[in-house]
Specification:
This protein is of the alpha/beta class. The protein has three domains: 3-71, no CATH class; 80-89 and 318-406, Aspartate Aminotransferase, domain 1; 93-314, Type I PLP-dependent aspartate aminotransferase-like (Major domain) (Aspartate Aminotransferase, domain 2, 3-Layer(aba) Sandwich), CATH 3.40.640. Helix content is 44%, strand content 14%. The protein binds pyridoxal-5'-phosphate. The site of pyridoxal-5'-phosphate has 13 residues, from helix 8.
Length: 411
């Protein structure tokens, strides 16, 4: 492989160009309500027509690079990681104990544990086990939703900006993205999103709270929205950050599943439960859709360790409450410090916050890295904003100190 090919991760020049144009990061900006897809634009710029297979491969490669490129570097000791919306306190004590104890169980397949956790989750949400599907992270849940409901000729409707996985997998599946900008106050524009759904819309994605803005859709807004979406479109409500919400008008959308069999809720054990590295998420949805999506999963997709840790976490509500209180407290404290400085930020209901840097955020992201503080990646549609995960109180004190140093407030 030539040096140039190595730089392009083994892809040919044409594939690389397609990946750049249609890659996960670019997908956030390049496909608009009316526009041609980013992959088409990139292929056009190259003066070649990329084949479907080349586009699929390139979109796939861009997705795989998304985490590895951001996290591949070895971290210097003491690095503060407030870039991936992880829980800095990690799993609860009961979950850690379950992980410690699970070594001997590792030699056995997980059928029973999988069944038991599914039953527990169903009970917790007031549904039947047939309404619950486990995933290798909620990413797998989002992936199989796309696999079942999208393909060439179909489209996905989503906010801009939002969490990109559903859009990234849609691109792999040759589906079109229809992006609906957030409102002026950075919330989902649900009336416009509903209006954008047509008979070709396989999936409409609502991230609630929204990553990266931390804003929420209220229960009332969701009810109005669901009544307008065509019944043939799957409504994916991603509640990865559910546990951090304080806004009284917000509620989980699980209650709507009975009335709207075309909707599902995605949840994860990666955030409040602190099990991001163990990979477990789940969907709650109608029996019919869960059956269709389960057919696309890897068989036995949840490992023995995470099944034990997840079950133990659910029995550790006190510890979860304490973690939540600490993170919400630090979030409030951070808002106070930003206010003192007169900095603009988007009030957040999640464990991260968007801060307006008053100019391109990218150089600041790099400066933070030099100071051993990793903050979130840029979001194309909001170039001046920097996404910061809520870390421990100590980490956030260090963050604010460094923010004042590298981006002093103008008098
Ligand atoms: C909104 C949202 N959904 C889903 C995920 C994926 O989480 P996981 O696959 O770890 O469950 C993330 C990860 O950050 C996210 O922000």
């Amino acid at each position: 492989m030539s040096e140039r090919e190595k730089m392009r991760g083994g892809m040919t020049r044409r594939e690389f160009s397609v990946a750049l144009g249609g890659g996960l990061a670019a997908a956030g900006t390049a496909t608009s309500l009316a526009g041609a897809s980013a992959t088409e634009a990139a292929a056009g710029a190259e003066g070649v027509a990329a084949t479907h297979e080349e586009r699929r491969r390139a979109a796939r490669a861009a997705l795989q690079n998304y985490h590895s490129s951001a996290g591949a570097k070895e971290l210097a000791p003491g690095t503060i990681r407030i870039n991936f919306n992880e829980n800095p306190y990690g799993p609860t004590p009961k979950a850690v104990a379950a992980l410690d104890a699970c070594g001997s169980a590792a030699g056995r397949y997980t059928d029973h544990a999988e069944h038991e956790l599914t039953e527990t989750l169903a009970g917790m949400h007031g549904v039947k086990a047939e309404n619950v599907m486990l995933g290798c992270g909620s990413i797998e849940v989002l992936h199989v939703a796309d696999l079942v409901f999208l393909g060439p000729g179909k489209n996905v409707v989503a906010a801009e900006p939002t969490f990109e996985a559903v859009l990234g997998y849609a691109q792999v599946l040759q589906a079109n993205a229809v992006k609906v900008p957030l409102t002026a106050d950075y919330r989902h524009d649900l009336p416009r999103m509903a209006a954008a759904c047509t008979s070709k819309t396989g999936v409409v994605y609502v991230c609630n709270p929204n990553n990266p803005t931390g804003t929420v859709v209220t229960r009332k807004e969701m009810a109005e929205f669901l009544a307008q979406v065509p019944p043939g479109t799957l409504v994916v409500v991603d509640e990865a950050y559910h546990h951090f919400v304080e806004e009284p008008g917000y509620a989980t959308s699980v209650e709507f599943i009975g009335a709207y069999p075309n909707m599902m809720v995605a949840r994860t054990f990666s955030k409040i439960y602190g099990l991001a590295g163990m990979r477990l998420g789940y969907a709650v949805g109608s029996k019919e859709n869960i059956e269709r999506m389960k057919a696309e999963l890897l068989i036995a997709n949840a490992n023995a360790g995470v099944l034990a840790a997840a079950a133990a976490s659910l029995k550790d509500q006190e510890a979860l409450g304490a973690t939540r209180a600490k993170l919400v407290g630090t979030r409030t404290w951070l808002c106070g410090e930003l206010k003192k400085d007169g900095r603009a930020y988007i009030p957040s209901q999640a464990n991260f916050m968007m801060i307006d840097m008053g100019g391109d955020a990218k150089p600041y992201i790099a400066k933070f890295e030099e100071k051993k503080i990793l903050v979130g990646r840029p979001f194309g549609a909001m170039p001046n904003y920097m996404r910061v995960t809520i870390g421990t109180q100590e980490e956030m004190v260090a963050f604010v100190r460094t923010l004042r140093e590298i981006a002093p407030v103008k008098a």
